[in-house]
Amino acid sequence: MSTQIIPASAYPQETLRSFLNSAPLSFSNLDWLSAQERLEGQFCYALSDESQIIALMSCEPENKYAAWLRFFVSESDGNHAQYFRSLLDQALSELQKAGITALYTLSFKSWQEQLFTNSAFLPFTRIITLILPTTNNIRIEPLSGVEMRLMTAEDLPELETVDHAAFSSPWQLNARALQAAFAACSYNTVALMDHRIVAYQMTAANFYTSHLARLAVHPSAQKKGLGFRLTLDAIQETAARGGTEMTVNTQTNNAESLRLYYQLGFSQHGKLIPVFQRAVQDFQ
Question: pLDDT for 200-213, tens place per residue?
Answer without folding.
Answer: 999 999 888 999 99
